[in-house]
Amino acid sequence: MSDPLLEAPTQTNPSHTLALSQKARPYLDSRPWYFTTLPYPLSLFLAPESQERWAASQNLFLASLIADDLPVAYAYLEDITERFGKLNERVMALQGLYQEASAKDTKALEDVVKNYDELLKTDPTLMAIRKRRVAVLKGVGRIADAVGDLVLMLDASPTDAEAWAELADCYVSQGAYEQAVWCLEEVLLVMPNAWNMHARLAEVQYIQSQKMSEGSGEQLKTLSESMRRFCRSIELCDDYLRGYYGLKITTARLLAILEKVKKPPTASSDLVAGDLAPPKVATVYKLNELATAKLAEIVRRSSAEEKGWDGYSGAELKAAKAMIEKDTQKIER
Amino acid sequence: MAIASIALNVIGVIFLSHAVYSAYEHSLLPSTSASPSSGSYLLSVLDPKVNLPVDITIETLVSVVLLCAGVVLSSANLKPIQWNVWAGNLERSKDARATKEVGVGGGNPYAALEERSGFLDIRGEMKGFAEWKNKGGEGRIEGKKA
User: Fold this and answer.
1) How many structural domains comprise chain A?
2) Interface-testing mutation among A1, A10, A11, A241, with chain B (most B C-beta atoms within 10 A)
3) Dihedral angle at the C-alpha atoms of B43, B47, B49, B55, nearest 10 degrees?
4) Residue A179 belongs to some domain of the structure
5) Structural domain for A242, as ranges
6) Is A116 a domain residue?
7) Is A200 buried (19+), middle (13-18) or exposed (0-12) by CB count in 10 A?
8) Which residues in chain B (41-100) have CB-CB distances under 8 A to chain A?
9) CA-CA 20 to 30 A from A206: which of A252, A296, B100, B103?
10) Lowest-confidence region among A43-47, A94-98, A205-209, B12-16
């Protein structure tokens, strides 16, 4: 049985955020009397301490903040601050979040950033506050400053995969695909089994290859690498819709290009770097077939609502369905 | 399979208790409890001094084998320990993603790399959520990655 209070509100599921924000006030009122009357260490005598309570508090705080229910959010923030202290790094970040959300105009937002700067002056190792600062800068469109901050942060803490992923996202939004690919490779160095990041990297490489001159060796190389990354994400995760969708797109594109290129290089183009030669047409064709078959299976079993096949998002399924239909139409013609 | 394993277990337990009880009764018979051999290589303290008939021994062994098979067959299915099977399950089914308690469940642990709660753009989220709600609150927030 799942406890919805323990699931954090996410962008992809706004109805969950809505449900959480509606639960926030009743949950707040249902706190037992002793919970609010005694300060933290003494309250332990009366109430058992549970992780669930605080995880739920944080999620409800975020949800009511997103739903613009500031008074309720403030009550949760007070609870959390009372329990964990003002100097706790995560509490500081949550307080920053509240200030950002309640800022009326750009001036107030600048004050929040100044406040972050003050905090960082006293303790430069507050990573949570550094991340907040980056998020504010990115939110107001100062991407260059955000990137500068992130680079500084990653110099100090190069194993922070979340920050690498954020930096990659900043670069993608600016069209700097080469840098983004590099950052995503760093993410994969830290977390080599993250199948969604393999797929993300493949997506960025696919976009990158679309901007290159048609049929050039460079495009062929990037595209085949993208295809291989999608293959890796599928290898790490069975029935990965995103992976198969990407595999289908990249192989279709590769087939079109390999047809045009008279003689694709069969050996490695750069022996020093040791990169692989582009795949054979027959292999790409087989992979394309496999992706089509798998996508069709996923769509079929999900729309038949088979047991244990309800986890795919509706929009992704729709896209996959549309692509299969487009494909079959092409063949009929 | 479930019925077969239960039957095996029940039969095994019955035979085992029967064998144990028979052995006990047998040891009480004065005529048979005499020491069978004088030339035993066991220490005299360790020698049970019982001459057990072969059928009781066989019954014990058979019942233990039956019980072993029954217990193994009636145990729960094995959990997937292959990475791709486990990950595929998370993608495929909502049930597998459910958060049961703090730190247990919750789906793809690497989704955090794309949601990045540390860099939460709270003002953008608020705006997106308000627009989503005004439009009737269906589907997902537009302009965000799926």
Assistant:
1) 1
2) A11
3) -140
4) no
5) 193-259+279-303
6) no
7) buried
8) 83-85, 87-100
9) A296
10) A43-47
